TrEMBL record:
Alphabetic keyword roster: Membrane, Transmembrane, Transmembrane helix
Keyword Hydrolase listed: no
PANTHER family cross-referenced by the UniProt entry: INNER MEMBRANE PROTEIN, INNER MEMBRANE PROTEIN-RELATED
Name of the protein in question: DUF2065 domain-containing protein
Ranges that cross the membrane: 6-23, 44-60
UniProt xrefs under InterPro entries: DUF2065
Source domain of life: Bacteria
Length: 61
């Protein structure tokens, strides 16, 4: 299980690094825009993202 978790973490780092590598200016603008979003909306987006990810994992298994 720990190996799978480590692989998933490494894959997350690769995926998260694609946008700043390819489009640094757009990525910087997106981060600046996210900094202005209120906490409740960010938490909602995070929750929805986690639920979709967990649902997709269950579906793929």
């Amino acid at each position: 299980m720990w190996e799978d978790l480590a692989r998933a973490f490494c894959l997350m780092l690769v995926i998260e690094g694609i946008l700043p590598f390819l489009y640094p200016q757009r990525w910087r603008q997106a981060v600046a825009t996210l900094a202005r979003v209120d906490d409740r909306r960010l938490r909602t987006m995070g929750l929805v993202s986690m639920l979709i990810g967990a649902g997709l994992l269950l579906w793929l298994r």
